[in-house]
Write a structure and sequence with these properties.
Keywords: Metal-binding, Oxidoreductase, Zinc. This is Alcohol dehydrogenase catalytic domain-containing protein. InterPro entries: ADH-like_C, ADH-like_N, ADH_Zn_CS, ER, GroES-like_sf, NAD(P)-bd_dom_sf. Belongs to the zinc-containing alcohol dehydrogenase family. The structure is a single chain. The chain is globular, with a radius of gyration of 20 Å. It has about 375 residues and is α/β, with parallel strands linked by helices. About 50% of the residues are buried. The protein has helices at about 40-45, 95, 105-115, 170-180, 195-205, 220-225, 240-245, 260-270, 295-300, 310-325, 340-350; strands at about 1-5, 15, 25-35, 55, 60-70, 80-85, 125, 130-135, 140-145, 150, 185-190, 210-215, 230-235, 250-255, 270-280, 300-305, 335-340, 355-360.
Length: about 375
């Protein structure tokens, strides 16, 4: 099969022919139809997030079941599926408690070492050299995924577009749930890329009003309004505009979806007294954002970190929202690249040229 390989930090992704991986017990081999293009992969490419190389990136996929490992039930070969970037082991103390977004083995095995939960990768070069897996290593024609993270795709959702359910929309849904958002609450979304646009859609679905989109790029603000934002402002306009919209108080909930100190501080400063700020953007390793301690304490502000949703609990609900058209999956996909163009996709993402979410498609029937 073909795979986009990152040989070393800072180098371009290169297409290689590597053996098709084999699923072990409790795992599923997915023939990948599409893989989303995410900033977190870009952080790895640039060395801003530590991860072993050589590796195959890509962590939000859609495709069809190609083979089932021993002991896998409830799925069949040929079935259309999606997978989230968080792959719960189902056995650690956090998974047992229903907190799959904090799965210990996902972080210690996959995110630190690039392997699955027996301590081994499933990807190798023809000479046997291991290729480490970022989540399932979705920038390839086939990927091995734990069965705990493989979900049948409902009818009516385009297979390639469905890839973004695995991170952009999955992360957005987790953020809205973490916020405890209630109908009628006011919301600001700082940075409206793929995840931010998902938050806009899901916040509206939860009954939020107003839903204010904030971004530097006018085309991203226009996209946010087309997906449900009631108002849209630049970062310079936003503080006063939100005071005007909220009677001088600020919003109930502010989401930050980029992972930069300036956007983190902006989101926090948009809150009303007692408001909640939910940061979801991944920052380069070691980056910090200063917080005014006295205001945080006196005004009873809450900062609620959110990495993603809970796969087995939340993905089925998100799929229903997408099937009903409450969350527009295809509407977020603005750019498509072939696997050979994967490096170009990340270079364009790095330059801020992707308006919504891009996907890398594998081509052929899937």
């Amino acid at each position: 099969m073909r795979a986009a390989v990152l040989e070393r930090v800072g180098e371009p992704l290169r297409i290689e022919e590597v053996p098709i991986p084999e699923p072990k017990a409790g795992e599923v081999l997915v023939r990948v139809a599409a893989c989303g293009v995410c900033h977190t992969d870009l952080h790895v490419i640039k060395g801003e997030v530590a991860f072993p190389t050589p590796c195959v990136l890509g962590h939000e996929i859609s495709g069809t079941v190609a083979a089932l490992g021993p002991g896998v039930e409830g799925l069949k070969v040929g079935e259309k599926v999606v997978s989230s970037f968080i792959m719960p082991c189902g056995q650690c103390p956090y998974c047992v408690r229903g907190e799959e977004d904090l799965c210990e083995r996902f972080f210690s095995f996959n995110r630190l070492r690039g392997v699955l939960y027996d301590g081994a990768t499933r990807l190798f070069r023809k000479d046997g050299t291991p290729l480490w897996m970022y989540s399932m290593g979705g920038l390839a024609e086939y990927a091995v995924v734990p069965a705990t993270d493989v979900f049948p795709l409902p009818e009516g959702i385009a297979l390639e577009d469905a890839a973004i359910l695995g991170c952009a929309l999955f992360t957005a849904y987790g953020a809205v749930k973490t916020a405890g958002l209630e109908g009628g609450e006011s919301v600001a979304v700082v940075a409206t890329g793929g995840v931010g646009l998902g938050i806009v859609q899901i916040a509206r679905a939860f009954g939020a009003y107003p839903v204010v989109a904030i971004d530097l790029r006018p085309e991203k603000l226009a996209k946010a309004k087309s997906l449900g934002a009631t108002h849209a402002f630049t970062p310079e306009e936003a503080p006063q505009a939100i005071l005007d919209l909220t009677g001088g108080r600020g919003v109930d909930v502010a989401f930050e979806a980029l992972g930069r100190p300036e956007t983190f501080r902006l989101a926090l400063n948009l809150l009303r007294d007692g408001g909640r700020m939910v940061p979801v953007g991944i920052a380069p390793q070691g980056m910090e954002a200063g917080v005014e301690i006295t205001r945080l304490v006196r005004r009873k502000l809450k900062i609620l970190g959110s990495y993603g949703a809970k796969p087995r609990k939340d993905m089925p609900i998100l799929l229903k929202l997408a099937q009903a058209g409450i969350v527009g999956v295809g509407a977020e996909v603005t750019d498509r690249f072939t696997l050979e163009e994967a490096d170009l996709a990340y270079r364009r993402l790095d330059k801020g040229e992707i308006v919504g979410r891009a996907v890398v498609t594998m081509g052929g029937e899937a």
